Amino acid sequence: NAGVMQNPRHLVRRRGQEARLRCSPMKGHSHVYWYRQLPEEGLKFMVYLQKENIIDESGMPKERFSAEFPKEGPSILRIQQVVRGDSAAYFCASSPLDRGGYEQYFGPGTRLTVT
Amino acid sequence: SQQGEEDPQALSIQEGENATMNCSYKTSINNLQWYRQNSGRGLVHLILIRSNEREKHSGRLRVTLDTSKKSSSLLITASRAADTASYFCATDGTGGFKTIFGAGTRLFVKA
After folding, report:
1. Averaged pLDDT of chain B
2. Is the dihedral of CA A39, B72, B4, A26 positive or negative?
3. Which of B90, B92, B100 shows the shortest C-beta gap to A100?
């Protein structure tokens, strides 16, 4: 049973370009969470999704950021017109049910560098 | 806003010593979890303690929870160099779906 997979592991984008980060949850998990981590800081919640539904996006910036978790395929975190401040590690996690009381399994992260 | 805050920010000890990290939070929680992160890697779940539990053990780990003080502690006994990592507490509140992470404690275990 493969763990949570994220790709790419490293992504370099110039300012103004788009960044697409992918997350494949563990098999059997239908709940996905995205977090952002700046150097020397903890993880900041961004969005919580179930298949085809955004449940809580209160941590997402209102502009340029969007997330989806389609019926088929991985969850995508999309950042349009990236700026240097978007440089960070982006982690996704999955859980089998509503994570209330269930641990989240984390992927290895995507490190985004905006030049 | 609800937030887990770890204390100390950094801790340096000798191999074989015990390491204690503390976490405080602000609002009611359903459960509290501790995670470990090695440099440049993803997070690894260590232990979950529910709001109606006071203490939990897993191997060399001991976690306590005091909901009256809104605090938790993680004790690592007989530390090893391989325990060198950042440790985060994370809380699941009663009012939503967010998992809130603290800024972490950076533990250095010297061989």
Report:
1. 89
2. positive
3. B92
Q: What is the pLDDT of residue B97?
A: 64
Task: Spell out which residues of chain A touch residue B35, defining contact as CB-CB under 8 Å.
Answer: 106
Q: Is B27 on the interface with A (CB under 8 A)?
A: no
- Mean pLDDT score, A60-77: 95
Residues 6+ apart with CB under 8 A from B58: B46, B47
**Chain B neighbours among A 43-72 (CB < 8 Å)?**
43-45, 48, 55-56, 58-59
Tell me the chain B residues in contact with residue A93 when contact means C-beta distances shorter than 8 Å: 43
Q: Are A80 and A18 in contact (CB under 8 A)?
A: yes
**Both tokens assigned to A60:** 């997402």
When pLDDT is averaged across residues B79-100 and rounded to a whole number, the result is: 84
Residue B4: which pLDDT band, with cuts at 50, 70 and 90? Answer: low
